[in-house]
Amino acid sequence: MKKLYFKVLAYSVFGGFLVFTSCKKEGFLGQTQTSNLTGETVFTDSANTVSFLAGIYANVGFSAAAGRFTYGPILSPTPNGGIDAASDEAEVSASAGSTALAFETGTINAAVVTDDAYKTCYTNIRSVNQLLKNLPKAPINNFVKTQMKAEARFLRAWYYAILLKHYGGVHLLGDSVYTYTDKIPAARNTYADCVNYILAECDAAAQDLPTVQSGVNYGRASKGACLALKSRVLLYAASPLFNGQSIGEGKTLELVGYPAYDKERWRLAVQAAAAVISTGVYSLNVDNATAPGFGFQKLFTRRVNTEYIFQLMRPTGNVDLENLWQPPTRTGKNGAFPLQGLVDAFPMSNGKSITDPTSNYNPNNPYANRDPRLDYSIIHDQTPLQIRLSSGTSPINIFVGKYNGNTTGPDAVHVGTTTGYYTNKMLDPAAVANDFMHRTDRCLPLIRYAEILLNYAEAANEYEGPTALVYSAVEAIRQRAGLNPYQLPAGLSQADMRTAIQNERRIELAFEEHRFWDVRRWKIADQTDNITTKGMEVDRDGAAVAYKQFDVRKRNFRKAMYLWPFPQSEVAKSPELIQNPGY
């Protein structure tokens, strides 16, 4: 096998209706506006054509959005979590109807599931096809047209990949642009057809794109993004749910996966991840000198960095995540609350699991000497946060009782949070919700280099066992996290390495739209999601403190939930659209 180097870098700085986005100094994805300009007007004007492409970028992060799922009135819905709340990462912020709650309780069905994946993806795929059809007549030089076409083809692959992980095989439109008078076909292509199509689109787009985008083009599709999307799609395709262990039968068998197992699919996934690594242009953001694992936290505050491969650009001075995830005293609201199971997945700072009797874990001081990523990902009792409209930090009082002159307050467990935790992952420590003084220039990662290293490690371990390169990939992640020692135990079996990799994905990629899909493709969701979730109550009486776990919710999982149901409104439109098994 070709030798690979898992490079890490020290902290450094790099510089119908049609949707349009302005090109202000925050980048090509600035304030979104709508217009009823006609197709003729759009594609005979260079600025409008460029804006049309920018509009297709606008929804690339919808599936991972922390406030994706909502409840309440149709005209003014309230967020109550993202895909994290539909997994064993977090609990919805309100026990009211939403897709996330339906997944938690096992009541998800075609009538209640959100249709955002189906509609958003196909709307944008149609927009790509409109662009590709009309781009030749646009008054733009050929070099730019070539770049725009390649970007559009990547975006089409991106949206199909989102459909594929939700539903399995879906209808492939090709380059067709249908109108409301046309009979629009809905028959599903096989899972294999969809994988092959996405890979072909990525390959075609990569030929005409730079390896990375920089300057005013930062955030646009690149060759690196094409390679990284291939890595993700091929990893999923090699995984148990899709690789010969399909939940389908009869007419759905080939629609929801490959009917027969093929070990070589793992080899293809290894090669795809290795192709990204071998570009040599991506690296982990490392800084263990400022504080252990500081590079992990700092990464998510940096608008431009060498770890993001594809990202959702946000306006400068945003507080998107703070508005959802910070506690009430910082006026955050309606984001999901982390669960105790995720907290317990973080090892000690020596890299040992808290269940290891030699780890030095102390249940009476449970957050001490833990993996630095725990504090950077989870707000627990006494976590210091920036004060609103002022300088400095103050601790978040999640306890019940009295401590340091404070009593049970709005941030407390059973008051502000139903689990005893708030999310800290990707929050800027200098930003505060609804505070004009403390904001961030952060953008949001959709694919980053740490995922690629873990993709490589998983695929290589499944294909040839825990080789030195598998160790190197995982240990690069652990080293950046600030673990000491960061090395894995020598001589791990393939099964032991699989467990280690799965846990590294759980904690390294938490709240980045991975856990929900990972437990499904590994086909272990019937174990991880058929549980009673737990929270933590911290009771204080002056210096005396007690930590008590409590039950949050009985979760239920059934076989059908390995895939999403197609919305009933879509199934009702055409008998050609075959519903997924169990719905």
UniProtKB/TrEMBL annotation:
<dbReference type="Pfam" id="PF14322">
    <property type="entry name" value="SusD-like_3"/>
</dbReference>
<dbReference type="GO" id="GO:0009279">
    <property type="term" value="C:cell outer membrane"/>
</dbReference>
<dbReference type="Pfam" id="PF07980">
    <property type="entry name" value="SusD_RagB"/>
</dbReference>
<dbReference type="InterPro" id="IPR011990">
    <property type="entry name" value="TPR-like_helical_dom_sf"/>
</dbReference>
<dbReference type="InterPro" id="IPR012944">
    <property type="entry name" value="SusD_RagB_dom"/>
</dbReference>
<feature type="domain" description="RagB/SusD">
    <location>
        <begin position="317"/>
        <end position="583"/>
    </location>
</feature>
<comment type="similarity">
    <text>Belongs to the SusD family.</text>
</comment>
<feature type="domain" description="SusD-like N-terminal">
    <location>
        <begin position="113"/>
        <end position="235"/>
    </location>
</feature>
<keyword id="KW-0472">Membrane</keyword>
<protein>
    <submittedName>
        <fullName>RagB/SusD family nutrient uptake outer membrane protein</fullName>
    </submittedName>
</protein>
<keyword id="KW-0998">Cell outer membrane</keyword>
<keyword id="KW-0732">Signal</keyword>
<dbReference type="InterPro" id="IPR033985">
    <property type="entry name" value="SusD-like_N"/>
</dbReference>
